[in-house]
Amino acid sequence: MEANNGGFCIQFACVPESFESSRNDTLHNIDSNSILTDYDSPPPEFENTTERDVIAAIGTTARLHCRVRYLGDRAVSWIRKRDLHILTIGIMTYTNDQRFLARHLDNSDEWILKIVSVQTRDAGIYECQVSTEPKISQAYKLTVVTSRAQILANRELFIQSGSDINLTCIAPQAPGPYTHMLWYKDSELISDSTRGGIRVLSEQQMKTSNLVISRVIHADSGNYTCAADNSNSDSVFVHIINSEKHAAMQHELASRILVPRILLTVLTLFYFLERVIK
Fold it and tell me: Does residue 3 lie in a domain region?
């Protein structure tokens, strides 16, 4: 290689100095763009819009939602805190307990840990972890409850034929902000369209439901059940007393009161007659 008026020659071919300068500028721009691109890619971060205190009733399905932005090529894992057991990595499950599942939609920032048929032992802290260096994680608390619907009445009710049934059911421990509640009579669903005179009024946010049956008849006797979402049900038995039977009961009661009065009157009369004869 030899110099040639400010340039250089390689195997009899001369390269102008301006070409070498342009080459250096190009390499510099490539390096600068590469550095700028790396700098512009923000690190992964959690999106704090998901519920991190989750309540689930025994036997139901719990879902823990973790959202991670700017994940890139990192992996998201779910870890059970009490024993540091890795449950899932990405969409793969790493536990023999088949109740634990990973759920993720392509192009989504959300990574879900699904726990089917929740048990008491599942309660505790779970971590959503991102494989950065150092690792970042976010904790979720799962509370497991035994929820039960409760009908505010005695276990057996005696209602006179022609009057109204009015039952109120509550489910204060039912998980979630809203609770769907249904009424059944002898395992058949009760609704406003079952027959005339039936009204079901439920307040899902208040977790209460009211059942009113107007002008009941003997056929309305039976077992009434209130069922709430993710809760054990509650039942009461309603006996419809016919008007005739009710009247007979009243007549029998009146007779029991009247007989002693008549006897007392007769005895008093005999007492005065005896005094007069003497």
Answer: no
d(CA 229, CA 54): 16
The DSSP output letter for 120 is: G
- The range of the structural domain enclosing residue 233 comes to 150-241
214: pLDDT strictly greater than 70: yes
The distance from CA 250 to its chain's CA centroid, rounded to whole angstroms, is: 50
Quote the tokens at residue 87: 């449950």
Q: Is beta strand 136-145 parallel, antiparallel or unpaired with respect to 53-57?
A: parallel
Neighbours of 115 (CB within 10 A): 23
Strand 85-89 and strand 53-57: the pairing is unpaired
- 234 and 225 in contact (C-beta within 8 Å)? yes
Question: In this structure, what DSSP letter does residue 54 have?
Answer: E
Flag whether 21 is in a domain: no
Q: Is residue 52 located within the same domain as residue 115?
A: yes
State pTM to two decimals. 0.57
What are the C-alpha distances in Å from 86 to residues 76, 110, 148?
11, 18, 33
Kindly state the average pLDDT of the residues 109-118: 96
Task: Count how many domains the chain has.
Answer: 2
Can you tell me the distance from the alpha carbon of 124 to that of 144, in angstroms, rounded to the nearest whole number? Answer: 9
* Cα separation, 273 vs 258, whole angstroms: 23
Phi first, then psi, for residue 85 (nearest 5°) are: -80, 125
Inform me whether the pLDDT recorded for 49 exceeds 60: yes
Written as one string, the DSSP assignment of 65-109 is: EEEEES-TT--EEEEETTTTEEEEETTEE-SS-TTEEEE--TT-S
Segment (H or E) for 249: helix 243-277
